[in-house]
Amino acid sequence: EYQLFEREVISDVSFGPKNFGLSEEEAKKEAEKAIDLVGLGPSYYHRSPFELSGGEKRRVAIAGILALEPDVLILDEPTAGLDPQGEKDMMALFKQIYQSGKSVIIVTHNMELVLKYCQKAVVMDHGEIYKVGTPLEIFQDKVLLDKTAIEPPEVFKVALKLIEAGLPISLKNVSDIDSLVEEIEKVKRK
């Protein structure tokens, strides 16, 4: 969101497409589409990006990238500084972008996000790829966790403790507290 510089959101988002050779009209169309996609809509087109909240600025910055129609979106700590609802909304946006056929790569230290939203995780250690796997594979690898000091999400640790205590829940279905409760209720119903 620190890359915003135009007077209006629509101008900021259409800047990239214009620089890639689109006409003013085509760039504006792409910008409107991208602004709508990130959940801001027409009421934001003519607002100043400098008067928006942090989460709104981040959405405008992402719209600026989406207006370029990339096949791959790489995001570094995209939910940092957002409140829980803002984080949830942002991750729902990335899921929507992924479902539209684009690749979404998120660089994060937030293991709760990794567990809840990621299909695959790449663990880096000293600039090298250490392991590629599902979040479940990563969080169950005690050697990896010790070597890299990755701390699994609390809900995952609680689920492991419940399994150790004899509760036959399925770790593959646990991604957040609600899904853990659901797993416990399934076991109780049996």
UniProtKB/TrEMBL annotation:
Topology with respect to the bilayer: Peripheral membrane protein
PROSITE patterns referenced in this protein's UniProt entry, alphabetically: ABC_TRANSPORTER_1
Origin superkingdom: Bacteria
GO cellular component, one term: ATP-binding cassette (ABC) transporter complex
Entry GO MF terms: ATP binding; ATP hydrolysis activity; ATPase-coupled transmembrane transporter activity
InterPro entries in alphabetical order: ABC_transporter-like_ATP-bd, ABC_transporter-like_CS, ABC_transpr_CbiO/EcfA_su, ECF_ABC_transporter_ATP-bd, P-loop_NTPase
Keywords for this protein: ATP-binding, Cell membrane, Membrane, Nucleotide-binding, Translocase, Transport
Primary location: membrane
CDD domains: ABC_cobalt_CbiO_domain1 (cd03225)
Subcellular location as annotated: Cell membrane
Domain ABC transporter: start-end pairs: 19-80
Entries under PANTHER family matching the protein: ENERGY-COUPLING FACTOR TRANSPORTER ATP-BINDING PROTEIN ECFA2, HEAVY METAL TRANSPORTER
Recorded family membership: Belongs to the ABC transporter superfamily.
Protein name: ATP-binding cassette domain-containing protein
Organism expressing this protein natively: Candidatus Scatoplasma merdavium
